[in-house]
Design brief:
Length: about 170
Amino acid sequence: MNQETVTVPGRPIVGAAHFRTLFPGTAHGAHTARHAAERWLTAQQGGPEAAADDSTATACLLIAELTANAALHGSARGRNARLALTLTPTTLHIEVTDARGDRPPVPAPAAEADGESGRGLLLVASLADAWGCVPCPPGGKTVWAECARWAALRTCPGSPGGPATTSASP
């Protein structure tokens, strides 16, 4: 079951807004989860015009890399991966949890960075303000990244304060 928690667009975030979705450990599943997260981030900023900034582009790239890595390196038959975003007035925290704790993320050495693949974690390390990996019992892992460039996010002059949340389960 997928679950998504959102705040009302056009209102400032007070506290935190959350987005969570489960996705199959496939390229298509990662693609679908990434696009759902991008739509959510755009809505949090009041629409496509407000979302066209470097912070959003960075966040979308981080989400794409982490979900793609979960599908490529962390999938296990019959087990979904999870994408979770936590947005505060100053930080976006991204977590992708998969079923393969035996395969921790390892950035490719610089010598291998010229290959056709293997640069995803190098991008994550260079674009995120912080990132890491923690075990997720009973055998998975959670790879996380944080962007601390969201201070101006969702501040709309004249908007009433306070978040409103809704939940949807497709």
